[in-house]
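Tutorial, part two.
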Amino acid sequence: MKAVGYLKCHPVDHPEALLDLDIPAPAAPQGHDILVEVRAMSVNPVDTKRRRSEEPKDGPRILGFDAAGVVRAVGPACTLFRAGDEVFYAGVVNRPGSNAELQLVDERIVGRKPRTLSFPEAAALPLTSITAWEGLHDRLGIHEGAGAGEALLVIGGAGGVGSMVTQIARQRTALTIVATASRPESAAWCRSLGAHHVVDHKGDIAAQLKALGVKPRYVFSTNTTARNWEQIVASVAPQGAIVLIESQAPIDARQLMPKSVSLHWELMFTRPMFGTPDMIEQHHLLDAIADLVDHGRIRHTMTRNLGPANAARLREAHALVESGTMIGKVVLEGL
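Running the prediction step on this input gives:
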């Protein structure tokens, strides 16, 4: 089958950073696995980080986590899907990815594709939706309908995860949402998704929040955590909570002690990677996202569709993500 992968780590502008490949198709699905014909995929920072730093050990590495497609076969333990179903999902880091014609994935981390979206539009959503949902509800412990009189600060509001944090929080909680953005177009994007206020993360975040009269109880940091750490510590309310999805440099969690602030990590691959007893929660939450989309309460975040996938177009998508200026998500159609 056709696939795109890499044999050695290279910068994105290297001609062999990603290669067009012909590899064996997956075996028939076993257990809870389903075999999906990938109709669309999107690119996330995790794709670019692994391409730059993870040398393949046994043959080519096939990246790609977000996908939308059609079920072609199911394993004997499957009960959630059958051949012909349209699905979307985010895969897992320790299995071959979605940059291929066919992919095996555990049905317990797969949701039904939103009926009102195309395959490319749907492929923009899974990884960021899971990260946002788990970060808000499972890590920060914010229950549906809660948060009246309290505020949430979203660092990196215009990116893929930030876009979904804002939408889910606006639709499922009573929180006042403050997103950060540094350009007029990214600030407008944040407001269009439901942010009540936007502050500039290149400026003094704490001072801007003070001017708004907002002291966030919750902080969801989606990028540049280390660079913004002092501002996050200064901004969060006493007895508040912070969730991080990255930190590319060390941070000093001891600074949170005077305020008794709790610190949480969110990695949406944890449940499938460790086979946790509750991994089926990702199936349930993706179905909930599909319902919210189909009822017009949240929207897809695809802002670029580069067309049918191949190595050259995936290198272009990786470059866009690495630029740090993306609003929303970049998507490609099936190989």
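The two ends are 9 Å apart (CA to CA). In part three we will examine how such features are distributed along the chain.
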